[in-house]
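Morning!

As promised:
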Amino acid sequence: MSNLFDPITVGNISIKNRVWVSPMCQYSAIDGVMQDWHAIHYGSLITGGSGLVMVEATGIRPEGRISPQCLGIWTDQQAQVLGELPNFAHKHGVKMGIQLAHAGRKASTAAPWLGGQPLAPEDGGWQTVAPSAIAFGSYPEPRELTTVEIGQLRADFVAAAERALFAGFDVIELHVAHGYLLHEFLSPISNQRTDEYGGSFENRIRLLIEIAREIRVVISPARALFVRLSCTDWVPGGWAIEDSVELARELKAAGVDLVDCSSAGTTPDAQIPVGPGFQVPFAQRIRQEAQIATSAVGMIDSAQQAQQIVESGQADAVMLGRAMLGNPRWPLQAASELGVEVPWPSQYQRGVLRKP
Ligand SMILES: Cc1cc2nc3c(=O)[nH]c(=O)nc-3n(C[C@H](O)[C@H](O)[C@H](O)COP(=O)(O)O)c2cc1C
């Protein structure tokens, strides 16, 4: 039986607790380069008590960004500036991850506060690419990737992982969720290719498995490799939890250390039963049936709920998103609520919350 604030070893890395920050786009980069906003935003999360902070979806290529303001890691300079984050995190005993991403047919959109809609080329947008030339809802039709381009994409993911290692990140997470490119390859809704990357289950998972294997070789056992999956498309005929369990077994064999269990994003028609902890059963099932570590995410808001998920063995860890935006010191507050003593940053010790 584990507690939320017990340390955990994932792969070969040791993380001080099981309450982690979920990746969250900030749409605040310039030419893919991190800015002051990121330093201060991630700084507050790093000092908030989480064991692991995951940097938002970071484009492995310029056209893989969701918006023109998304972070990138296709140049050494971008990686060098990002390196400030793990450098600061390590001084506070916190592990730092980065989510490597390509947005596929959902790229080239405006930031949410600028409307979030697809951008035309004259407004700074670009031609999107995908496994097949099938649009997401009313988005523009993407261009189908050639087999040669898929090989290049694989190389770009691996090069991005190498840069992330150079920058000092402890965890590389592949973004295979929310209807972005690697998820688009998995789902029969968005992948109708007739070459070796489409059709059967084995063909649809091929690119992800190839990337995972190659990154595993590059990153050595000293760092951890996570995969964030959309465990179901929530539509008949789409990717389903049974597929995710089978894929998780393959990912484990490819050297992946943990599956981060999210859902949805391939189709705007999905009926999603959103509610407290609604994705936790996916983390539980994959953990049990594929025998791989999992994290649960989605509407986990209270200390008791988070503790119960970890204690009952539904997941090895929880990731929190919006609750961390509302209160970046959520983990310190949760420890206090659960009556667990955890060290606060020295600078904040006079503010330690005591149980009444
Ligand atoms: C502002 C914002 C940005 C997000 N960006 C990402 C992202 O970059 N990558 C990702 O996998 N999920 C992203 N998500 C989803 C969150 O990581 C998380 O899975 C989701 O918000 C559900 O968790 P919550 O209920 O704790 O917020 C984002 C969510 C928010 C609110």
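The chain has one domain: 8-351.

Hope this helps with the figure draft.
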